[in-house]
Amino acid sequence: MQPDKMLESLVAFPTVAETSNGALIDFIRQYLARYKVTAQVIAGPDRDRFNLFASIGPADTPGYILSGHLDVVPAQEPEWRADPFILRRENGCLIGRGAVDMKGYVAAVLSAVPRLVEMDLKQPVHIALSYDEEVGCCGVPYLIDKIPSLCAPPLGCFVGEPSGMVPVLRHKGKATLALSARGASGHSSRPELGKNAIHALLPILGLAAALPEELARSGRRHDAFVPPHSTVQIGVIEGGQSVNIIPDHARALVEARAVPGENPKDVLATLFAMAEADQALNAEISASYPALDLDGGSDLARFARDLTGATPIEAVSYGTEAGLFQQAGIPAIVCGPGDIKRAHKPEEFITLDELHAARDFVLRLGQSLC
Length: 370
What we know:
Blueprint: H1 3-11, H2 22-33, E1 39-43, E2 50-56, E3 64-69, E4 88-90, E5 93-95, H3 103-111, H4 113-118, E6 125-130, H5 140-150, E7 156-159, E8 170-171, E9 173-182, H6 197-218, E10 231-239, E11 249-258, H7 264-267, H8 269-277, E12 281-289, E13 292-293, H9 299-308, H10 322-327, E14 332-334, E15 349-351, H11 352-368
Parallel strand pairs: 3-6, 3-7, 7-14
Antiparallel strand pairs: 1-2, 2-6, 4-5, 5-15, 8-13, 9-11, 9-12, 10-11
């Protein structure tokens, strides 16, 4: 199957994060079975969402992982000019939700399978597909935990997030702190008879709002990044129902992005401790993943440079699952087709040339392992 036809099939499954991806997993599993490639389906605690792992070549020999996620962000923006889950072709562009982030890469990998199975691979190519990356890399840890029982320790992992097929050595880690407060409703003219949940959140949100300046002034630095330090932002605030009702509930999400060498949970530690000490508040880390920090002189970085012909980028601002693979002892690098600036936007697209370049990369990887 040509990569654009495969992408058309993948986009047609509306696998928005935190919804079922079972139908798409079945489609991929059946496609691989046509070429006698057995797929292991790995469920997480949400029984309607699954990871998939498959090996082509001798799985008992160290090889390389091609990693991608199957979930996409919602597509409710009014600027879409047609159904975002029906791939459109316009002037060499393939338009649809997930086209660049990152079903395009997955399509390139899957479209290369018929050629890969014909190769005399001395080392395997593994395909690792995950769920719920878009909400904090929630699915891939369950896949990574299973890898030791599925294959020999891999030599490296290529995570195909959009990078223009230029390898990326580093990205920041991320953690999200979910805060909530319960109050007691009542008429706003008698605030002493109720308990304002929004007011209960204000002290900790004030501390969160002051953290960015503190991190810029005295936090850990890494000059490969812009900005060259960890960051914090309050991304969501919700609460109340009417201006004349004392709000009995409030919720906020606070995000930390941490440079390599700093745990993103640690960036939020003062906020978490403050919430734990306040009986009016509840707090939990709802998602987190570590930074990626690959040495430019490593075997994987040199191999990626040889395969792509491109000098690796030192760092990018977005996050990926690569840090989790590295944390598990599998060297990882980011390298995928398209431009991240097109992701999470209406009229998201990848070009046909970019799609074919990614497929060619996969085939070069296979040829190098023969």
